[in-house]
Predict the 3D structure of the following.
Amino acid sequence: MVRRNYIFDTIREVFLRFGYQPIETPAMENLSTLLGKYGEEGDKLLFRILNSGDYLKNVTEAQGHKGTEAQGHKGTEDASPQSPVTSHQLAPLPLVPRSSSFDLNQFTQQISEKGLRYDLTVPLARFVVQHQHELTFPFKRYQIQPVWRADRPQKGRYREFYQCDVDVIGTNSLLCEVELIQIIDEIFSRLNLPVVIRVNNRKILTGIAETIGASEKLTDITLAIDKLDKIGLQQVNEELAVRGLSAESIERLQPVLTLEGKIKEKKGFLEQLLVGSETGIRGLEELCHVLKYLKSLEVRNKFEFDVRLARGLNYYTGIIIEVMASGLSIGSLCGGGRYDDLTGIFGLPGLFATGVSFGADRIYDVMMALKLFPDTIRSTTRVLFVNFGEEEERFSMQVLKKIREAGIPAEIYPEPVKLKKQLDYANRKEVQYVVLAGKEEILSGKVTLKNMKTGEQQTVLTDKLTKYII
Amino acid sequence: MVRRNYIFDTIREVFLRFGYQPIETPAMENLSTLLGKYGEEGDKLLFRILNSGDYLKNVTEAQGHKGTEAQGHKGTEDASPQSPVTSHQLAPLPLVPRSSSFDLNQFTQQISEKGLRYDLTVPLARFVVQHQHELTFPFKRYQIQPVWRADRPQKGRYREFYQCDVDVIGTNSLLCEVELIQIIDEIFSRLNLPVVIRVNNRKILTGIAETIGASEKLTDITLAIDKLDKIGLQQVNEELAVRGLSAESIERLQPVLTLEGKIKEKKGFLEQLLVGSETGIRGLEELCHVLKYLKSLEVRNKFEFDVRLARGLNYYTGIIIEVMASGLSIGSLCGGGRYDDLTGIFGLPGLFATGVSFGADRIYDVMMALKLFPDTIRSTTRVLFVNFGEEEERFSMQVLKKIREAGIPAEIYPEPVKLKKQLDYANRKEVQYVVLAGKEEILSGKVTLKNMKTGEQQTVLTDKLTKYII
């Protein structure tokens, strides 16, 4: 937790430094807000809250008879031989055996109206629509809160984990993208974690699809090329064929799939390729504008313009950003981009939005693996006073008060037990200094300060103690 | 949120200063951990999570037939005329109409195994038992997380709210109580919110019950006298009689109910009253020890020794603490005490524990009412750069970078819209300073700095800008 707080504090401080305001939203959202936003798989991973009180009260007999697409039973098929119940019965339970027309989805809807948030973006959209008349636009907000997913727990995947999101709503200025990448650069620099910031633009992908004569196959193309690193060129080409791309389109896509080189070279290549696509050229211009800007601002981490970067394409509308740990293949530490119809699904279309999300848990894992956490944050207590008994304790409590006032986290062992036990406690808590203030020391106005790391001991004036504790 | 963070940050900083480590526990706990810990009413207020996947799969026909004490139906009464279903049917739903032997509680248990945490104390107990072999005792932890209660939402009562708990596990040293009250004093002093710290000792209450010959009526006595402020002396006495206290006991209790005066006077009175009760005298000694200690440590807020303070008596075993806003009757801002069998319910008896919990939402309400939040925390952005167009923007972004490096939260309006709109934005976000850097200013190496509060404008050297932003 101490280490995780170090990550959160770093992220929060940088967000604030760039003028983003904190918001928090409730853990529970209406299921009507959440359902259908994360695909079919996402719907299954939502944690649902059972309605309070007698949640079966409003379950109607009708449930199970309307039939959803999933089960598709018709209302006329209801009468199973095992459930001779009329539909006029009061407060009935689902009396139809499940093998018949019972519809689990519909039953679930009737007993559960709320779910735990699955990410921070949909709650943000709901929040912005709900408070649109009170908010100041462009609305710059950050949000650091847990989200929940009913995944099978496994290493690196938790049922509850934190997301750290930062977004600007209400402007299509590319300055936002510039700042978001500055934020990314600043955060990972502060964490001492070298990263590669990969960028692309959805408009370039659109342009490529246009250029190779496969506009309507944009999703298929990106889904296939997203797998390039995993399955290799040949299999990607096979998949493209299966997905219905013509041999000619696949042929014309080859230079894109194998595109390597410096940003300048890629730019040159794409300028030629996209010459017939207005959208594609605009995408390339946007990207180059942002990259040039960032160069002038002396961003410290490396850039990579990867024309194959898509990150769930249907969502993004402009620049796409993904951050990887430099030299490690562990998945992205941060990602995002422009998604210019955030609030459309909630009835407020046309609100520009761009943002990125930091995966605190994965950042934590990488920092642990690379031993990047500074020693100084490992312990919450800098100084432990040994407890020698009532009289010494009273004396120590007075000194302790001054040390804490000087901003140093400090404590005294609460009982006068054996010295060894108290030193063990200090070691296990990784306390840096131990103060020994026995009767003699008190009389002489001095205490013994022991550095637990080096083992060094020195006698120092009680009044000067804080100066020795670095 | 900015204001709430101010409260959280203050609380967190003081907790850390006293050597407490942060922990967090998952939002979801097993219902078996939560149920029965908060009384019957509490059980009803738990939010339950529907099991994932086909949650009806494991609902057995047997459910509803075992009968709980609430409904009490016997297993032999299952065959309602409307449900001629054999118990051998696979994956059945609850086919028995609810008017018959259906048991909602049991059904709920089968479709929901997890619930949202209701407080931070029960999860702490579960955590300590689970990690008892890894933890360093005395275990000093703090925890600041939301809890959930299915209350009807109303003013001052939320379904999701934060608790800020600080506890020491594994020592019965009274030093813990001294430090907890130091922590309370420090937090409310930093928040500039004057409070009265009320204290009592459960042992004194036990002693009083012994002394008046009503040991077995301890709960009744405290429940009744807890209402003294609300219903007055006469009605308390009536309630005591209804609760079965003898006229003599009630008579002997009167001096306690009307006890007023300075701490010294109360102490003198109780020393006499409790002379026959070892427990009572010990309780009084403990309390006096703590109060004397605190006096020597120059605690700034006022104390009140209130022999009627109980705070859900059955829970506490020693000193009881409650903090009220000075001069306001708004309920307690913080409360707690010693509860020396925290982990007994989870099979680890005899672990000493003491702690207090801060109600951040109520503290927030009081601070808003008394206008105690400092002006400086109202805005997250200290400086806004006006955006005059591409060239000026590039210049501003360079200056902005330096200002942020100096630790000042700053931003630039992302689009070169009309000046009025940008100044409106600054005003709505309560930004203190606006920087105007037009073409002329850039050439002269100076910018215009406008104080949005006073309206004052001055021209300052760009290099010296940070010095003017206080």
Notes: Chain B touches chain A through 83 residues (CB under 8 Å). Confidence is low (pLDDT under 50) at residues 61-92 of chain B. The longest helix of chain B spans residues 278-296.
